[in-house]
Amino acid sequence: MFATAPLRIVAVSAGLSSPSSTRLLADRLAEATRERLTADQDRPVEVRVVELRDLAVSVANHLVTGFPPADLRDAIDAVTGADGLIAVSPVFTASYSGLFKSFFDVLDPTALTGKPVLIAATGGTPRHSLVLDHAMRPLFSYLRAVTLPTSVYAASEDWGAPGDEYTEGLPARIRRAGGELASAVTGRAVSGASRAATPDDGEDAVVPFEQQLAALRTS
């Protein structure tokens, strides 16, 4: 009997302080995802949090030299090998932090293709919540990740505040987002196993753009 490989959830936290609300939100989203995965299936679940503040110098060195130090290489391997990714950044100047962007800049552009990603952000005021849709979602769309419908923004006033009849409180949003990521991860694991068991019939082959243009010219 073969041991079942664990599902790997990796959370990337770009918080700069210690402790930080960004790391706290990453931890809570990871725990909500783990709880749903554990409740829904029997496979073990591994959760890891990557703290970008500890990798800032290594990220800068990689951008300059093109070679990742060992600690950054380990973090990159964890992120690209995860079954599900949680990405959390503080808001700086109405966008994600420079450290957050720099880390994802050093990834191979295709490394996150098809990977379920839950995006989240923290800030001092609710006015910056649109950063999720005008900055973070386009970033992961460019990287061809599968960004989940529910994103989570936590302003300072959200911590410990209950929801009302119009807006879910932060704990409810965290549970909903974690549930979505868990569903995406298990669905991806099943579909990946199905693809491995089914011969490639060529239907998903990518036709180069130049070849498509040539076909138009001769038609």
Automatic annotation (TrEMBL):
One of its GO terms (molecular function) is oxidoreductase activity. It comes from Streptomyces salyersiae. This is FMN reductase. Keywords: Flavoprotein, FMN, Oxidoreductase. InterPro entries: CE1759_FMN_reduct, Flavoprotein-like_sf, FMN_Rdtase-like_dom, NAD(P)H-dep_FMN_reductase. Pfam families: FMN_red. Residues 8-159 form the NADPH-dependent FMN reductase-like domain. Its EC number is 1.5.1.-.
